[in-house]
Amino acid sequence: MSNNILKFAMNRNTSVEKINGGNLRSVCRLRDTFTDAEVVIEVKMPDMEICAISGYFRHAGWGEIEDLDRRLQAVMGVRVAAGMLKIIKGLMGEEEKIQQIVYMVEECCHGVILTLTRKVLLKAPDDEAGKVSFYSNMVKKSIRLYDRCAAFAKGTPLVAELEAEKAKGGA
Amino acid sequence: MFDFMRNKVVDVARLDRETLEVHGILDDSIYSLELCFKVNISDLICSGVKGRWLRWTTPECPRAIDFLHEAEGFCLKAGIDNKIHKTIGRKSCRHFANLFIECGHAVRETVKLLNWEAAQKENPEITFKQFMRNDETASMAESSPGMDNEKKELSSPSGTNKPSPKKTEHKRNAGSLGNPSAKKGKFVIDMHVHTSPASPCASDSVDAMIQEARRIGLQGICLTDHNYVWSAEAVQALSEKHDFLVLRANEIITEQGDILTFGFYENLQGITRLADLKKKVADVGGFIVAAHPFRGFLTFGADDVGLTPDSAMARELFKWVDGVETLNGKVTETENNMARDVANGLGLPSTGGSDAHDISTVGVYATAFDEVIDSEASLLAALKQGKYHPVVFR
Predict the structure, then answer these.
(1) How close B177 comes to chain A (CA, Å)?
(2) Which ranges in chain A are annotated with CATH 3.30.390?
(3) Confidence of residue B178 (pLDDT cuts 50, 70, 90)
(4) Which of residues 5-64 of A touch B (CB under 8 A)?
(5) Are strands B220-223 and A6-18 parallel, antiparallel or unpaired?
(6) In this complex, do B16 and A97 lie within 8 Å of one another by their Cβ atoms?
(7) pLDDT tens digits, B316-374
(8) Residues 6+ apart with CB under 8 A from A127
(9) Contact B300 A120 (CB under 8 A)
(10) Distance between CA atoms of residues A153 and B3, nearest Å
């Protein structure tokens, strides 16, 4: 047995670009040992609603998904926002055969969110004290960040100001 | 020019007869990180989870590495993704969780390949397509697609999650309802409360939520568990047990987002088209409210993407709803303000609710009614009359 030879390999690339009218086009491409697939979505700004979608999916075992276009069109009009994952799954289906294409739609949407997140993060200062202040203010402005990951966990420095304000009844 | 790029690479090697070695890299415009671990082929249990950051954002992100060990012992069978989100995503970092999910998928695909290779030893002619068709048939026999495991395991607090066949309207004596000291002479109800286990995302029981609501001086709460219908009998029993007004509502997922329904007790599952929901609710004389219509993202909000109240008013969502939740405890002040401006602009009534998933946030926001509410019927009548407004309560 050659333990240095791969059994399985996967490459997934997601890219986002601005297109005409300020809308965003997000493309997710997947190539793995079994699969060659692509999903393209266009997101209308500033409503952040999916206004166009297309894609293809080829799997060595399953072949193509016969009703792929119908599945993809089901998410037209869905807003890229918190809670979108359950909506996308619910509209497209959750059978094993369809799971990867659903995930790719989600990845396209995450790409859009991360594109906008990146714009915010570019405003962060370079020095450590400035960063602490920047991210402390961020969690105060967006309470959903609080205790959502290790960086913003209860008792950590980035949430100290928020917790102090909470203790005083100010938040 | 691309504004954002994310690349993920996952590879799986067979270390020995029993073990797979998995290596994943996530590298995007913001983050760069790596994961590696081993998986036992026979039971898909992972071990030796290690990770490292190459690029990150906050000064505290490196702490995420300390929590990756939480994935030790995870069984990477299909359906593990939610657990990965809840443990690695919440305790460590959502980007490590994202990569871990990719790795899990890669492991399952590798096992298919190994099983096919094993099948070929018995039948050298079997193609991968034939093998997959057999595998699919076997999987279908084992599970019911379209239903996630958490829902399957959920036991109804009332013994059933089916709507009550008979709508038993119960009234409570307003004088004995919980706290008689209504703030500013109003009757204040938290219109948006989740409980565990009816809402898998909630962490406190219905009894705990009611006790807290009573303690802080609310006059009532509406149970809005996700796509979950409480029986009238169960809710009446809770009201009597706690001497407190407990009313049934629902939070239903539509393609336009979450919708709070009042006076509607059909047990809808999955995603319902908003137009269909509106018709169903209208047919039984109910009332629907757009829940947190501008709930945004972790680092930016609707205002940051250039959405204005005027442009937002044109959204399809607002053509169907009877009211708008303009104070929601899970969104930012800016997002609530946007909802308020849109509701005012469209002349739609506003409600408030905590959207509490644990006792610490019950009653943060609520709705103050001009009249005493003592039943689901009186709540529905008050909602339609528009004699209420959202309040900051706690």
Answers:
(1) 27
(2) 10-120
(3) very low
(4) 5-18, 24, 32-34, 45-48, 60-63
(5) unpaired
(6) no
(7) 999 999 999 999 998 888 889 999 999 999 999 999 999 999 999 999 999 999 999 99
(8) none
(9) yes
(10) 30
Residue of A nearest to B126 (CA): A61
| Cβ A4 vs Cβ B16: under 8 Å | no
CATH of A10-120, one of 3.40.50, 3.30.60, 3.30.390, 1.10.760: 3.30.390
- Euclidean distance between CA atoms B323 and B346, whole angstroms: 10
Helices (H) and strands (E) in chain B, counts: 11, 14
Q: Which of residues 89-128 of A touch B (CB under 8 A)?
A: 90-91, 93-97, 99-100, 103, 107, 110-111, 113-121, 124, 128
Which among A59, A143, A118 has a CA at the least distance from the CA of B5? Answer: A118
In chain A, which ranges are E strands? 6-18, 24-32, 35-44, 49-59, 63-64
Q: Which residue of A has its CA nearest to B128?
A: A61
CB contact under 8 A, B298 and A142: yes
Q: Which of B106, B132, B297 sits opposite A82 (nearest CB)?
A: B297
Q: Do B255 and A61 touch (CB under 8 A)?
A: no
Decide if B94 contacts B58 (C-beta within 8 A): no
| CB-based contact A109:A79 (threshold 8 Å) | no
Cβ pair B258, B233 in contact under 8 A:
no
**CA A131 from centroid of its chain's CA atoms:** 24
Please list, in sequence order, all residues whose beta carbon lies within 8 angstroms of the beta carbon of residue A53, skipping any fewer than 6 positions away.
Answer: A39, A40, A41, A42, A72, A73, A75, A76, A105
* pLDDT band (50, 70, 90) for residue A116: very high
Q: With 90 as the cut, is the pLDDT of residue B222 above it?
A: yes
- Give the span between the Cα atoms of A48 and B18, in whole angstroms: 47
Structure tokens at A91: 């509209």
Asked, as a colleague might, if the bond just before B165 is cis with ω within 30 of 0, I would say no
Domains in chain B, please, with CATH? 6-145 (no CATH), 156-392 (3.20.20.140)
Contacts of A93 in chain B (CB under 8 A): 146
pLDDT in tens, A122-134: 999 999 999 999 9
Q: Which of A73, A103, A114 to mutate to probe the B interface, most B CBs <10 Å?
A: A114
Torsion of CA B299, B87, B252, B228, to 10 degrees: -160
Comparing alpha-carbon positions, the chain A residue that sits nearest to B291 is A83
